Amino acid sequence: MSSSSSSSASSASSHPLLPYGWDEDWQSQFVPYAEQGLVPGRVVRVDRGQCDVVTGDGVVRADTAFVTPHDPLRVVCTGDWVAVDPGGNPRYARVYLPRRTAFVRSTSSKRSEGQILAANVDHAVVALSLAVELDLGRVERFLALAWESGAQPVVVLTKADLVPDADVLTHLVEDVVHSAPGVPVLTVSAHEGEGVDALAALLGRGTSVLLGASGAGKSTLANALTGEDVMDVQATRDMDGKGRHTTTTRNLLPLPGGGVLIDTPGLRGVGLWDAGHGVGQVFSEIEELAPRCRFQDCAHQAEPGCAVLAAVDSGELSVRRLDSYRKLVRENQWIVAKSDARSRAGRRKEWKRRQATGRAAARAKRGEW
């Protein structure tokens, strides 16, 4: 190792932002901005054009005017590493470093634009409440987005204390495990403290984002992991076992055992966003069967020699899994096609704008005003 790289590693290992995920690679990427007199920070919260950024001097408020493009996937978000002004009023976040990973979903609007929920995450934790009936299709949808983000998905079944029957609990866990190949599945009771240590150990390195529907117990889980009442929590309703929605912003919280956690508001809609790879990961058994089909373009509907349908007939693959796979594939194909169409329309609009500007410049040069 050269003296310069050794010095960089030493500097990164002693940096005050180390508990928030700062490392040697971030240090190296930041060199050009340090030379401009800017300081590094991590976005812990974004709100209406401003963001809270944790720096070596503590949390500062910064304006995001310089990092707010028209593309909703390029706006600054919780988890970003940014270069901020060392002083001034207001202070500005000048640029954010290239993201390692990004959790993106499709918005619930008819425009179906992408929305980035968290950046630079290593684990995408999907919280599901055992107090209500499990929606396995929703689990698979969350996991497709998690895999697509580049993070390692983790499923946490919360409120395990509300399922007193051990056999029922085992059955529920098995259902989720079958729907989440290659994904750790943990059961947790935050109120009883059961399973929290195992989850904390899993999340002890890197950054994790906590995802799930309203009432899934995310805020209670965040409090258990941090060891403090950092998030407001409301009691579970007796009538249906659901919690009440409390989190309204995405917040980045350091964990006492290492790592950081991004808590998010409850998600009503979980639309796919160009998640073809993620869908393939969730339904890996179908992806493995597909090459055995007689036809390369087999849609697994009624084609002769379809290995996927044969697996359904033999009981190797459930009808529910195949139906869920078809649904997510269709949805993803639709959103990709719509996104491509919007991109083409944007390029045409920009081309026409440039043409108009060019014609105006030519008329001005000829004095034709």
Overview of this protein structure:
- The protein is α/β, with parallel strands linked by helices and 369 residues long.
- The chain folds into three domains: 3-96, Nucleic acid-binding proteins (OB fold (Dihydrolipoamide Acetyltransferase, E2P)); 102-263, Rossmann fold (3-Layer(aba) Sandwich); 276-336, Ribonucleotide Reductase Protein R1, domain 1 (Orthogonal Bundle).
- Helix content is 37%, strand content 20%.
- The chain has helices at 3-13, 24-34, 136-149, 166-179, 196-202, 218-226, 276-282, 284-289, 307-314, 319-366, and strands spanning 39-47, 50-55, 58-63, 81-84, 91-96, 102-106, 114-119, 123-129, 152-158, 185-187, 207-211, 251-254, 260-263.
- The protein has a six-stranded mixed sheet with strand order 10-9-8-11-13-12, sandwiched between helices. The chain has a five-stranded mixed β-barrel with strand order 1-2-3-5-4. The chain has a two-stranded antiparallel sheet with strand order 6-7.
- The longest helix has 48 residues, at 319-366.
- The chain is flat.
- Residues 234-248 have low confidence and may be disordered.
